[in-house]
Amino acid sequence: MVKGVDYYDTLGLSRDATLEEIRAAYFDAAKRLHPDVNPTKAANEAFLLVQEAYDLLINPMKRAAYDATLPQSPLANQYPLILNIPVRSFPTWVNSS
User: Fold this and answer.
1) Residue 37 φ/ψ, nearest 5 degrees
2) Which domain does 34 fall in, by range?
3) Residue 96 contacts by C-beta under 8 Å, 6 or more apart in sequence?
4) For residue 40, what is the domain's CATH number?
């Protein structure tokens, strides 16, 4: 992982992109930057960065770890950590059988 690189920006994605959006963005960039199509050194370096971004973002565990390093992740405060809430604190209708 390259420090200071925003892999979402590399692929032109928002941080809440779906796996399908990640795949589509990767294949679009790969078609434009592949060394067989674009033999320049800059395109080759960009192609390698796009591959790295795709490998990281397509893997849910790697993506979660990466997202945790980002400043002000848009989902950081949206969902509470349910695992830290004792069961007895849920409303009674949640615990009823």
Assistant:
1) -95, -40
2) 7-95
3) none
4) 1.10.287.110
Predicted confidence at residue 81, as pLDDT, reads 47
Please count the structural domains in the chain. Answer: 1
> Which residues have CB under 8 Å from 19's CB, separation 6+?
58
What are the residues whose beta carbons fall under 8 Å from the beta carbon of 62, sequence distance 6 or more?
55, 56
> Does 2 reside within a domain?
no
Q: Alpha-carbon distance 15 to 7, whole Å?
A: 9
Question: Whole-angstrom Cα distance, residue 15 to residue 9?
Answer: 9
Domain assignment present for residue 76? The answer is: yes
Structure tokens at 8: 């979402």
Q: What stretches in the chain show pLDDT beneath 50? A: 79-90, 95
d(CA 46, CA 52): 10
